[in-house]
Design a protein that fits this description.
- The chain is an alpha+beta fold and about 475 residues long.
- It folds into two domains: about 1-230, Gcn5-related N-acetyltransferase (GNAT) (Aminopeptidase, 3-Layer(aba) Sandwich); about 255-485, 3-Layer(aba) Sandwich (Aminopeptidase), CATH 3.40.630.
- It has helices at about 1-10, 30-40, 45-50, 55-65, 115-130, 130-135, 160-170, 185-195, 285-295, 305, 315-330, 365-380, 385, 410-425, 440-445, and strands spanning about 20, 75-80, 85-95, 140-150, 175-180, 195-205, 225-230, 255-260, 275-280, 335, 345-355, 395-400, 430-435, 450-455, 475-485.
- The chain has an eight-stranded mixed beta sheet with strand order 8-9-10-11-12-13-15-14, with helices on both faces.
- Strand 2 and strand 3 (about 85-95) form a beta hairpin.
- The longest helix has 17 residues, at about 115-130.
- The chain starts with a helix and ends with a strand.
């Protein structure tokens, strides 16, 4: 990669044809190297506090940037020879997520003092800009986190192309606005030229520590941080007129998504189109593909897995996958697939009966046993059959996972709706779900599920009185929800 980038730096400035393409996880090393060369060294806040001199903060900054690749919303400009010319890292910001207190990195910045200084400033800026109070009708926003362009290609429209494609992506994701925090004078000027409006500004000389000292003494012309927004017009259409699709369910419906086009850029923005996705039963032939999907989109997000670092424990992960395979054996699980046949979401279900005890909990010495023990305790204390003595048979949602790029687009709701249809066919009188994630709990509430039990992780301790699960914020508890049928 060094030779590749050096050849770019030495080339003469001239017009270049290029493509804007999504960044895949395979390109993490190349993107990280690009950011080191063309973002970390130029960013005014990094320069002001000499962040790159602190190894822990530098690594944390790199991890922070690369982590956004997993959401599938990041793009890069690539020359005909395959060189990266620029990157843009994006994320979806939702009203309900911004009600959560605390910074997005939690306590992880404690040993990275310089990076923590930046995080605290950005939290203050986001809080005082107060986007969702300013725009009470806006609920979903595309946030541009980082834009960086190779210095050789600056002033040649690369930044504009990246923002244009982000706008197109935002429309497909049904975002009502694009939001960006600009810590650089030049980045603020660039987005202002693209029609963004400034809604907040903070002069660096006014941002001081407890001793009254200016925290960020940035170089001119970088005198302030700005928040700029670009409102979007999002068209929503009813799907009631669409033809039926599912023969195996009582309620037949197709589901509408925005098409995720190739995002190739040739100077013209493509017109976004729409298509339907299907919800289908998971078959035995799907098993390996489903497990691969879970590895990519569920294991890395699940709060209990993160809390125990189970991803680093091969034996524990093997036990967890055995558990998932057992659920698939019940043939009650569903998948959402796009027209290309790609899985974009899964829901793994099982039957729970009042008079049949679940005896599959064979003790083992792995970390996964800790999760099973917690779930068993939650199940016992929730006591669903005690609360609802007339319920004898219910369908239990064990796992729900949606591809990062499709979250917030109705996939989870469709999977829940089809599970309800399935529950009716299976003569179940209730749907039951244990939510270990803050976000899955919120999703269940939005769908009308009723909470019957809550356990705070801080209250679940071992024999020494130590907390067993310390998942990252906002995952502070596990909840049990039900929906009578």
């Amino acid at each position: 990669m060094d030779a590749k980038f050096n050849s770019i730096v030495k080339s003469e400035k001239k017009e270049n044809s290029y493509s804007i393409i999504p960044i895949s996880t395979n390109e993490k090393p190349d993107v990280a190297e690009f950011l080191r060369k063309f973002f970390f060294c130029d960013e005014p806040l990094n320069v002001a506090i000499k962040l790159l001199e602190e190894k822990e903060s530098t690594q944390k900054l790199e991890d922070y940037c690369i982590d956004y690749l997993r959401y599938g919303l990041t793009l890069m400009a690539v020359s005909q020879s395959g060189d990266i010319m620029g990157v843009i890292l994006n994320n979806i910001m939702r009203r309900e997520d911004c009600k959560i207190n605390g910074n997005e990195n939690g306590d992880e910045t404690e040993n990275c003092s310089k990076f923590k200084d930046i995080v605290v400033l950005l939290d203050k800026i986001k809080g005082e800009a107060n986007l969702f109070t300013r725009y009470p009708n806006v609920n979903r926003v595309m946030e541009i986190k980082i834009v960086a362009v190779n210095e050789v290609y600056r002033g040649q429209g690369v930044c504009k192309a990246l923002v244009d494609k982000t706008k197109e992506l935002a429309l497909k994701m049904e975002c009502q606005m694009i939001y960006v925090e600009c810590t650089s004078h030049f980045s603020a000027k660039a987005v202002e030229r693209l029609g963004f409006q400034c809604i907040y500004s903070l002069a660096y000389q006014d941002y001081k520590n407890g001793q009254g000292e200016v925290v960020f003494s940035t170089h001119l012309p970088h005198t302030c941080a700005k928040v700029l927004v670009l409102p979007l017009l999002v068209e929503r259409k009813s799907t009631d007129h669409l033809p039926t699709l599912f023969k195996d369910f009582n309620k037949n419906r197709k589901y509408l998504l925005f098409k995720d086009s190739t995002l190739n850029y040739s100077g013209k923005m493509e017109v976004s189109s729409k298509y339907l996705f299907n919800v289908e039963p998971i078959t035995q032939s799907d098993r390996q593909e489903v497990i691969s999907f879970l590895r990519k989109f569920f294991y890395r997000d699940e709060p209990l897995i993160i809390a125990l670092n189970i991803m680093d424990d091969v034996e524990a992960m093997s036990k967890f996958e055995d558990y998932c395979n057992k659920l698939l054996n019940e043939e009650l699980s569903l998948k959402a697939v796009n027209p290309n046949g790609d899985i974009i979401g899964v829901i793994l279900n099982g039957i729970k009966c009042k008079l049949i005890k679940n005896d599959d909990d064979i003790e083992d010495n792995t970390k996964f046993q800790e999760i099973k023990s917690l779930l068993r305790k939650i199940d016992q204390e929730a006591n669903v059959f005690g609360l609802y003595p007339n319920v004898c048979r219910l369908i239990e949602i064990d796992i729900v996972s949606v591809d990062f790029a499709y979250r917030g687009r109705g996939v989870c709701q469709a999977l829940f709706e089809k599970t309800k249809d399935l529950a009716i066919k299976q003569k179940c009188s209730m749907i039951y779900v244990e939510c270990s994630s803050y976000f899955s709990a919120k999703a269940a509430e939005k769908l009308g599920y009723h909470c019957i039990y809550t356990m705070f992780y801080k209250d679940y301790v071992n024999n020494k009185g130590e907390e067993i699960f310390k998942p990252p914020s906002p995952h502070n508890y596990s909840k049990v929800y039900v929906s009578p049928i």
